[in-house]
Amino acid sequence: MTTTIFTDGSARGNPGPGGWGAIIVSEDQVMELGGREEHTTNNRMEILAAISALEHIPHDREITIFTDSAYLLNGITRWVIGWQKNKWMTSQKEEVLNRDLWERLIKVTLKRNILWKLVKGHAGTPANERCDVIATGFADNNPPVLYNGSRSRYGVDVKSINTEVIKTKSKSKAYSYVSMVDGEIKVHKTWEETKARVNGVKSARYKKATSPAEEEEIIKEFANLVEP
User: Fold this and answer.
1) Per-residue pLDDT tens over the stretch 131-162
2) For the chain, which end, N or C, has fewer CB atoms within 10 Å of the first or last residue's CB respectively?
3) What is the reported pLDDT for 78?
């Protein structure tokens, strides 16, 4: 089963009152989520939106997450690897901001098959616009009524996504899957084969490759995580 998530975050004053919004879309259901914090930042709300959505989804789902936050996407797909290796210090030798939320996000993304995609905000993607309405509504302490019901009755077009502004790789057919368990890296041709190896293994990591070149890059990335 495949699940699609849209997320957004907002903070008035940044820092200031903030809110987050998320839409979870399955084959026949849609669930809207939202929340508020009295004093926060836009970046924290972006991360919390993703965490909250993922906590509602079973681990056996393939997931695509659309976000308009490059900070969120780059953080979870690239930067956290270096931060963890450097004991949560940046390359400028400063403490990583929002470490508490990054660690929560890492925890809820482990052992999951997730594709992260970046869209430009306010650029013709209805579900992204709706997430903004939810997030800003909560930030203003005037939250909208959240929908939870049939996909066929949902009033927002969840299929219309402006692919011209997606900055990451499109959702191409898998060429292979790469997994790492206890420092041992293996390449698999099917998701079922991959899941059989990583399911229930706390330290497991895995990624989908869409080409031979990407497969090689993932292998290098995982190899760099192995302690010498």
Assistant:
1) 999 999 999 999 999 999 999 999 999 998 87
2) C
3) 87
Q: How far apart are CA 154 and CA 177, in angstroms?
A: 34
Instruction: Give the C-alpha separation, 84 to 82, whole Å.
Output: 5
Angle between helices 99-109 and 42-54 (to 10 degrees): 20
Q: Is residue 144 reached through a cis peptide bond, with omega within 30 degrees of 0 on the bond before it?
A: no
Task: Estimate the crossing angle of helix 42-54 against helix 126-139, to 10 degrees.
Answer: 110
A 10 A CB-CB count for 87 gives 8
- Parallel/antiparallel/unpaired status of strands 29-40 and 16-25: antiparallel
Single-letter amino acid, residue 182: D
| Strand order, beta sheet including 16-25 | 113-118, 62-67, 2-11, 16-25, 29-40, 148-150
31-55 pLDDT per residue, tens = 999 999 999 999 999 999 999 999 9
88: left (phi over 0), alpha (psi -120 to 50) or beta: left
**Catalytic machinery residues:** 8-9, 46, 68, 122, 132
Whether the Cβ atoms of residue 84 and residue 203 lie closer than 8 Å to each other: no
* DSSP character at residue 79: I
Give the global pTM.
0.72
